[in-house]
Structures are given as structure tokens and as C-alpha cells.
Amino acid sequence: MSPVVTTASVPDQDKIAYWRNAVGKALVPMTVAPRGTGPFAGRLTTSRLGCLQVSTMEADANRVSRTQALIARPSEAFVGVGIQVAGSATLVQDGRRAQVGEGDLMVYDTTRPYSFDYPERFSTHVFQLPHRALGVPESDIRRVTATAVGTADGVGAVLLSLLGTLAASAPSYSPATGGRLAGSVIDLFAALVTEQTRQATPEADSTRSHLVPRIRAHIDRNLGDPALSPEAVAGAHRISVRYLHRLFEGEGITVSRLIQQRRLEECARELARRGRTNPTVSAVAQRWGFVSPAHFSRAFRTAYGLAPREWRSLRAAEVAEVADAPQADRASAPALPAAEHR
User: Fold this and answer.
1) What are the phi and psi torsion angles at 83 (to 5°)?
2) What's the predicted TM-score (pTM) here?
3) How many angstroms separate the CA atoms of 148 and 113, rounded?
4) pLDDT of 91-143, one tens digit each?
5) Which of 21, 66, 113, 168 would you call most buried, defined as having the most Cβ atoms within 10 angstroms of its Cβ?
6) Which helix (H) or strand (E) holds 119?
7) How are strands ordered across the β-sheet holding 42-49?
8) CA distance 282 to 290
9) pLDDT mean over 161-186
């Protein structure tokens, strides 16, 4: 059985401090800031497979950060590989931002600052691989942190499948078997890094630099089409879906998530407009490609923390307040946030 740490029996006023201490001991020291106002709830299990540490974390919405001050404390260096089991997260490291959802794979390095933002209750598997055991150049690892790791095929798909199995069965293996399995994970991770960072030719770099902006512009022009998808985008540019995903490996977001993010941003912008007559929320959602009102409401709340109608009321009140304010105060009025910032 894996040791279980839970806040269930901890007094409400002590839950955050208890959770921060538990996460720091099981993983690495991090700051923890809850996003809700009620009592915080979290549960953490940890197992070992040879040199590999396997943890499963379930908790309420919060933001965790690995700061430079915490990194300065003596501790072992790890590369973290996470699988988002439930909920969503935004990982920021090395100047990149990756949005991950259920079933997505993420990579981060504990030797440099990073943060995870969980806007809702979530569950995630975390695998900590010691730097000393990897045999992978640090420069290569730095190129794959906080990027969208493809798991539809290739090494990413194999690694995702193996890690999911190990997370569910880690305590059942003998030390000898666990050590061999840890070696398999490390070998697969090294192969993944090689696949993600293989050297591109100057011609390929030139193609990417011209094609990615064209694809982004195409997505923006066709947001209202409910059939807009990675398959449709790839077909419009006469490339394979696999190559499309490869083009976006360094963009910090997958194509499907980019489509949803841009749709949500346009919906948010339109809902915030003030006019004599305003379209219904469902009409706005439909105009920007959302077929299901229920799906739109869930996605909007995840991105902005408010239901669409609440967002419209809040922004209308802010616009009215700015309109009534003296001219000198209007320059400081808040701008619309991008959906990826949630």
C-alpha cells in the first residue's frame, strides 16, 4: 500500500500549511495558493519504483510555484513528467506556457522556476525522474519543458500508456521489478526528448516560420465554423495531421486547444460589449463555433472563472463605471484577459 496524505482530519485553518508541507516533502518545496474561499481539500499518495518516484495528487483549485528562493535550498534535481487525469492546468516554465487537459502529458524541471495553475478541482499523476539517471543534455530537456507533448502516436503514446499503468499498480511490484520498470521509463523519456528535439534542417525551419502564422490566421478566419478541427486545418493546408501537431510542438499549445482558446476569447470580447441590444449568450456561442451551450458554459467557466452571463454582467458594470469616471481615470481601466491566462 502507498502512504496516503490527506487534509480530511486537519482543522480548516491549518489545511493549506499542512498541504504545502506534505507536497514539499513528497515532491519538492513549492508555494501553494488556494483559488477558492472554502476549506481546502487534498489527497496525495506516493510510491517508488527503483529511482523513480510515483505520486498521485487530488486537490481543490490552487496555484503552486517553484520559486528561485526554494530552488536555492539543497535538494535532489528532478525532471517531472505529469499526466493530467482530471481537470485542467496551465504550466509555465522557461518562458513558455502549456495548457493541459485530461490525458495530456507535461514535462517540467525542478532546477528552474515553474508554476502550475489549476482553475478547478483536479487529479494528476506525477513521476519524478532524477537528473543524474537520465543521461540527457540539460539543453535538450530545456527545449521540451512546458510544451504540448504529442501523445497520439510515437514515443509520447507509448510513454503515456506505460506511465498510466505504473501509476495504477506501482505498489504491487517487487524492488527488482520496480528497478527494471524505472529503467524502461527513463529510456522512453530519453527517446521522447530525442524525438521532440531532433535537429531540423534550415529548410524545415523556414517552412515552419511561414506555415505556423498562416495556420493561426486560418484558424482566426474560421472560428465560427463548428467543423473547424485539427483535421480540417491540416486538410486546408495540404499537410498531415501528424505534421500539423509537429509544427505546434514548440508553440506551447495544441491545435485543438488553440481553436477553443480563440473561440472563448472572441465570445468573452463580444459578451463584454455594451450596446442597446445584446445577443443572447447562446447566440454568441453559436456565432463562434460552439454547438453545445452546456459545453460552452463549462469551457468558459474553466477559462474565466465565471459563467458567461456572470461575465457579461461584470464587464457591463466595469464599462459603465469607466464611462462615468473622470477622463484621467479611464486609462487605467482593465483590459480583457486572454482565455489562456485562466
Assistant:
1) -120, 120
2) 0.62
3) 18
4) 999 888 888 889 899 999 999 999 999 999 999 999 999 988 888 888 888 88
5) 66
6) none
7) 4-6, 42-49, 52-59, 122-130, 78-86, 105-109
8) 9
9) 92
